[in-house]
Amino acid sequence: MANIVGSGMGLRREMVQPLCQQGIPAGVNFMEVAPxxxxxxxxxxxxxxxxxxxxxxxxxxxxxxxxxxPAPLDEAFVRxxxxxxxxxxxxxxxxxxxxxxxxxxxxxxxxxxxTEEAVEHVAARVKRVxxxxxxxxxxxxxxxxAEPGAEMxxxxxxxxxxxxxxxxxxxxxxxxxxxxxxxxxxPHQFLRGLPSERIRYLHIAGHYNEAEDLIVDxxxxxxxxxxxxxxxxxxxxxxxxPTLLERDFNLPELPQLMTEVNRISxxxxxxxxxxxxxxxx
Length: 281
Description:
Layout: E1 7-10, H1 13-22, E2 30-33, H2 43-53, E3 58-61, H3 75-87, E4 93-96, E5 99-101, E6 105-110, H4 116-133, E7 137-140, H5 154-165, E8 168-172, H6 173-182, H7 187-192, E9 199-205, E10 208-211, E11 214-216, H8 225-238, E12 243-246, H9 254-278
Parallel strand pairs: 1-2, 1-12, 2-3, 3-4, 4-7, 7-8, 8-9, 9-12
Antiparallel strand pairs: 5-6, 10-11
């Protein structure tokens, strides 16, 4: 399986043809796709995707697994994802630690209650997904706007799920910042409380300030300085991990997008240099 390193960006369909024609920019070490958008595509797009997947490692970041839902797990869908990953030599499948379905698809990421019962429910489903995929599932800490029925903190809940399910973490740095503003908690303490050994890769993104005390996680704006600072702190605390820029709409031209991808690389280099300077002679 292809390993990922360095900095990456999301691959959207409108980017495929330009990237096939112009080549993947040198600063992009891996790319991320939502498998739901690529399972059924026309032959031309499939050939183009294959062309790109042979040049750079691809990771999957799902949208509809709904790992915390009360409804039965969609095992047929998980098998489709496994087939897609096997076909394109993809090792990583990440999903949101949330749910997005009830009697029908909700088209939003809903918060799972932070309870022991929910930990057991999610962990059992994660284990089943991992059995089908024959790979570790990578769960992302999500932004949330309410805490229904919470009996523990978000940090306690995440750590309990990771431990009980024996799965991995997609650490979203922007979501830590968003939740720290919306729920008035300490982002640095939260960051330090996550298990370094579980982290597979990172996300960084922009957001929208709805009000002074309410931030909406949109992935539709530039990354702000406090989030860049939190990324640098993350490298100091947990080590340097592959990091992907999420930009889902208001997409700028590729050169402008690459300024943020390249900034990830710059922060990684700085963190590496600082780590070397701190090592004993």
